Amino acid sequence: MENYSELLTKYALNNENYKNWRKQHSQIFGELFSAAFSDNAEGQIHLTAALINITQRNFRAAISKLEILDRICANEHDAAVTNYFLGICYELELSYKMSEDSHKMEEHYERLKGLNAELVFPLLFHPYYRLAKFAQRESRFDDAILYYSKALAIYDGARSMPKINASLSYILYDLATVYLNMREYDKCQSCLEESEGYDGSENQHRIYVKAVLRAVQNKREESLALLGMLNDFLRPSCEAQIKAILNGTDPYHKVIKHEKLYTEEEKNMSIFDIFKRKKQDEPHAIRNDLSGAIKALVKNEILMIPNDSASASAPSASKIGGKPYLPEDFVWPTYTSPDDGEERPLSFLCQVNMNDVKKYDKDGLLPDSGMLYVFYECESMKWGFDPEDDGAASVFWFDIFDNVNFAPIDIPSEIAEEYVIPEIPLQFKARRSYPKFEEFQIYSDIECDFEEYDEALSALGVNVDEDSEDHKLLGYADIIQDEMLTECERTSRGLYCGDPESYRNTPEDVKADISKHASDWTLLLQLSTIVRDEFEFMFGDCGMLYLYIRKEDLAKREFDKARFSVQCG
Fold first, then answer.
1. Distance separating alpha carbons of residues 188 and 173, to the nearest angstrom
2. pLDDT mean by block of 10 residues, the chain; 569 residues
3. Element (H or E) spanning 76, and its range?
């Protein structure tokens, strides 16, 4: 192990901000975090640095630090904390990328379950649970049920542990909420009963769902009694919904004549058996439909291939880096970061001469002439999920035949040397492009998991094991974490996308409209790590910069309306 001061320097921490991070993590994760590696100051630094990496979505960097800790755990408490956060990293990768290492995540949870029950964190963050919550948030209820069922199947058999019982209770009342939204009220009732069976303590959200369900069942007195058990935060909204249901003005739920929705066979089955059967019972016809649906979505993409054999290019040639060939009166774009208030010029990333690519543009989506330019503020390295990030990336298009004088423009001296991209000439190639699993769900209602989707892609000749690191125009993004179409639509409306809370706080009608218009966006350009001789520039940790544009704006050549997102591994 490195010593204390070396580690602080290595992770760009000083004593003051290190203590602030420790304090924040203690507030979030409680005394179990604070007490981990209590006799090992260096271990505490590694753990804190790992959590910082997690907040920055640098999951691989976090895993490397946690694996160091996994080798030096002094007791079961250290092991519980380490395996908990290792599981978190792999499940976040699954949520954002459908990582091939998903088996490792379950491996860490199994190790965690094998430790002293008093040391085990609640297993609420199981990957399938997280995926279910994402789907539920986006009103993809069938997907939510599928992932909840997989989570239940994994927890089944470990119900003797109190904290796992608490987790099962949470999953089941969340599932009850899904069924309530689907108006499958008998299944909602069943899930609530199962939830109380695992954890009978008062749960405000479960009471809320039960109160609404009782109103739907026209059990007025029970509903109002449950309403009285809610805290001041939840009671007003629940009261408004209950009154609307009972007086017939709620647009979604109505008082119903209660009917049984289960089959005779299902009446004698446990909730686990029902969901296990749902998981396994997937007709062969669905797989055939899946292949057809993927084929229908094929697009053309244009690879931007670095020409390493060329030492220089003509000023107007397509290239990454170097000096851009721009109108002589061009005003270099800048971005003022809200983090420090400093205004910085954007780095020039690339220019593409439309004449170079038009023969590869098989769908005729790009202009036949002119120059496309991309700039990005590399030092601030904004992610794009915050509307305040607007301006950290810029896209321009100029028609060079528009009676404008063009010339190579010098790079502003204020840009630090490590953010000045060297010139890399480009050549191009057309290729078929299929959506990643995460994006496929935007276009299709077909129910499948990522393994089935990869099998269907493989049958179409796609190498699903290859990690693409391409620069390209058009087609579908090589997603690292999660689909970005929804993010683009949200941020275009001024909505934050950096945490689940921002999604939860979005009104349902707004979420529905966002989902409706997410497919209006399409990938314009993708840039991966830029390498030339000894120079290397990464977007985050082995990440990519993505630029999206509405199809309508692309047709109008309004490239200034493009939005960006950065993801990393």
1. 8
2. 56 66 68 76 83 75 86 83 78 53 60 57 56 75 82 62 71 89 88 82 84 91 90 82 86 64 51 49 47 84 85 84 91 90 93 91 87 93 89 90 78 92 92 89 79 84 78 92 89 85 84 88 93 86 90 90 87
3. helix 76-97
Residues, the chain: 569
**Helix, strand, coil proportions of the chain in percent (round to 5)?**
50, 15, 40
* Separation of alpha carbons 314 and 325, rounded Å: 9
How many whole angstroms separate alpha carbon 527 and alpha carbon 473? 9
| Those residues with Cβ within 8 angstroms of residue 557's Cβ, 6 or more apart along the chain or in another chain | 367, 397
Sign of CA dihedral 241, 245, 247, 251: positive
What is the pTM (predicted TM-score) of this model? 0.53
> Count of alpha carbons within 13 Å of 219, Cβ hemisphere only?
12
Q: For tokens 């939860």, name the residue.
A: 504
One-character DSSP codes across 445-482: -----HHHHHHHHHHTT--TT------EEES----SSS
Residue-wise pLDDT tens digits, 202-253 = 778 889 999 999 999 889 889 999 988 988 777 888 888 898 888 888 777 8
**Which H helix or E strand runs over 110?**
helix 102-113
DSSP 371-431: EEEEEE-TTTT--S-SGGGTTSEEEEEE-TTSS--EEEPPPPTTS-GGGSPPPEEEEEEEE
Q: How many CB atoms lie within 10 A of CB 205?
A: 14
